[in-house]
Specification:
The structure is a single chain. Strands 1, 2, 3, 4, 5, 6, 7, 8, 9, 10 and 11 form an eleven-stranded mixed sheet that branches. This protein has one domain: 3-Layer(aba) Sandwich (Rossmann fold). Helix 3 packs across helix 6. The protein is an alpha/beta fold. The longest helix is centred in the C-terminal third of the chain and has 24 residues. It is 27% helix and 27% strand. It binds hypoxanthine (HPA). The site of hypoxanthine has 13 residues, from strand 5, strand 10 and strand 11.
Length: 254
Amino acid sequence: MPRIGIIGGSGLQALSGMSQLKHMDCETPYGSASISVGELGGQDVAFLTRHGAGHSIAPHAINYRANIRALSDLGVENVIAVNAVGGIRADFLPGHLVVPDQIIDYTWGRESTFYDGRPSPNQAAEEISVQHIDFSEPYDERLRCILLSVLAALDMPHGYDGVYACTQGPRFETAAEIRRLQRDGCDLVGMTGMPEAALARELNIAYASLCLVVNPAPGLQAEAISLEAIMAVLAEGMTQVNTVLSSSVKNIVC
Ligand code: HPA
């Protein structure tokens, strides 16, 4: 039974080094999720790619509830999520890896809780009630420390904290929106951090994020955002992400 889940984002459609792969379509009360289960670093791991095969699901259209519920149903208790982000903090440059410690949610209209008081088919009674979880520290400190110690041991340039701003997408932000995020104290901007992190907390899954900076946030450099440049950083950076993940899972005690 996999106790570790990895959620891949843009650029991470599969985990190299994962063996004995078994693909499963998992049904949940919220819809289905496609998950690969296999072995990585001597651990049973469930891998889910949140944008679907061929990167076909936009950030606002991802079924975050089905994904998290399916991982939980498989027995997953620890999730490392991978997110491609724009860098807002001056030293968060393309290619840097960052382990954020806080998040601000700027999204709207996403199904963002299991506890909305609205029953859906096959839903367990305890999920129908309204509940308010503590989310003051959104990321699990134990998992963050594992990621940070692996990054340090591998001598990869990285940021050990940062506030992740989750915007709605799928468009990139305006320069004024990024200035507002700067005033709010945000260091990174991405489109997929929420409600994923909060849903994991609702199901008592320890959750941390490994962010790859793929561009300076919009408006912070003279040139417009270039998808070609982002793809180039993703290609190189995800090799490093894979290395970090393989080492990190070994250190997760299940
Ligand atoms: N903004 C929002 N999401 C992103 C960015 C960005 O600049 N880069 C990668 N994902």
